[in-house]
TrEMBL record:
InterPro entries linked: AB_hydrolase_fold
Designated name of the protein: Dienelactone hydrolase domain-containing protein
Length: 316
């Protein structure tokens, strides 16, 4: 995660969180929904962006997923230091917005803003890669899966920072013992994750095979909402991954624009990469709501539906 857009966006104030903070398997966790087991026996682990539980947007989105699917949704407190402070978003906007004209005052303002950002963002970039906390995420996911009632399934949702571990969880089993065979029968009975969704993923440009493995190994249904103008995983990168998938798992309709999506079902694999025209990194979580950015706000709403429909289809 190295693009400035990872730290830009808007805090949402259109609703209040409906869930609660609890300790789940030894981890501080936001819990949303799941009050009606007759509707769904399944759960979703929501792995957030860099702002984690400090940004209300993540809680509100978890509430929406819970309401739309009936699943219980967990956001574990796994980002370093509990996540970055949401106030950094406005400072990053100030830093990255070009001055209308060159002035000494404008330059000094940029410098002072950068000096405020550096003590928070540089340590995050250096020390907060999700691989450092991944063993705890894996243990948490296995414990949640083990607690599900018979017939319950587990989904993983990841955004920006959280997309990397959400993808990696797709190659894991419910225990530390890995099956000897990758046949669909053994994979279905032992895979940890039953459906995955991610939005504007980070850290995955240099590891396209990670996405291929996540889809291919245990046939986990895999969905991704991709911003066309993302500095990280954008339309071009999604098309590269999708092309590689066509090579190894068979036919696919391809990644297309406008949020319509491309799909593939070769060798029993199910995946989609939906490209959101005009959207930027962060749109799934931090798009301004009711303010000044209709493109990203529309993308936010459509990506939310994409996730809810995907989880409802494969978890319920």
């Amino acid at each position: 995660m190295s693009c400035p857009a990872c730290f830009r966006g808007a805090a949402h104030d259109h609703a209040e969180p409906k869930g609660s903070m609890e300790t789940i398997h030894g981890m501080r966790t936001y819990v949303a929904g799941g009050s009606d087991p007759a509707r769904s026996k399944s759960a979703i682990i929501y792995l957030p962006d860099a702002f984690s539980l400090k940004l209300v947007n993540n809680k509100l989105l978890a509430d929406e997923y819970a309401a739309g699917t009936g699943c219980k949704v967990y956001i574990p407190d796994v980002v370093m230091n509990g996540g970055l402070e949401p106030s950094l978003m406005s400072k990053m906007e100030t830093l990255m917005t070009p001055n209308p004209s060159w002035t000494i005052t404008g330059v000094l303002s940029k410098i002072s803003t950068a000096l405020i950002l550096i003590p928070s963002i540089v340590p995050f970039l250096l020390f907060a890669h999700p691989s450092k906390i991944y063993p705890k995420i894996l243990s948490f996911a296995r414990a949640v899966k083990a607690d599900l009632p018979p017939g319950g399934k587990l989904g993983a949702a990841g955004f920006c920072w959280g997309a990397w571990p959400a993808t990696k969880l797709c190659v894991e089993t419910t225990s530390t013992t890995t099956p000897d065979s990758d046949t669909s029968a053994s994979a279905t009975s032992s895979r940890l994750i039953d459906a995955q969704f991610n939005g504007h993923p980070s850290y995955m440009v240099k590891t396209p095979e990670m996405v291929v493995d996540a889809i291919r190994k245990f046939k986990v249904p895999y969905s991704s909402a991709v911003a066309e103008n993302d500095m990280q995983f954008n339309k071009a990168e999604a098309e590269k991954v999708e092309a590689r998938l066509r090579e190894v798992v068979g036919a696919s309709t391809g990644a297309t624009s406008g949020g319509q999506g491309g799909e593939g079902e070769g060798e029993g694999c199910t995946y989609e990469f939906k490209i959101y025209d005009g959207c930027v990194h962060g749109f799934c979580v931090r798009a301004p709501i009711g303010k000044y950015d209709d493109t990203n706000e529309s993308g936010y709403e459509r990506a939310k539906r994409q996730a809810v429909e995907w989880f409802d289809k494969y978890l319920n």
